[in-house]
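Changelog note: in this version the structure field was regenerated for every chain. One regenerated record is shown below for reference.
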Amino acid sequence: MHHYLYLAAILFAIGLFGVITRRNVIGILMSLELMFNAVNINLVAFNKYMAGEPLAGQLFAIFIVVVAAAEATVGLAIVLLVYRNWRGVETDNFSVMKW
């Protein structure tokens, strides 16, 4: 089980580093997907080694994949709209969206 936890921690750290340091929104979305995948690995690993329900972790992982797909869809739609208006997808462009 330790191997899964180390892998998930490394993936989550890489994703967190990407979210903090990236200025490009596409890179931030990709880093968020890494963080979601780290959570999925943890859910499946804990389900395999600790829980009594045989498929609970996998069902939660599928739920997170669906939520991540919806988040990516909405995020990419916003990115496309920002790109059409400002010809760039840097995070500085998003500060204009404040009211």
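Spot check on this record: Helices lie at 2-21, 25-49, 56-86. The radius of gyration is 16 Å.
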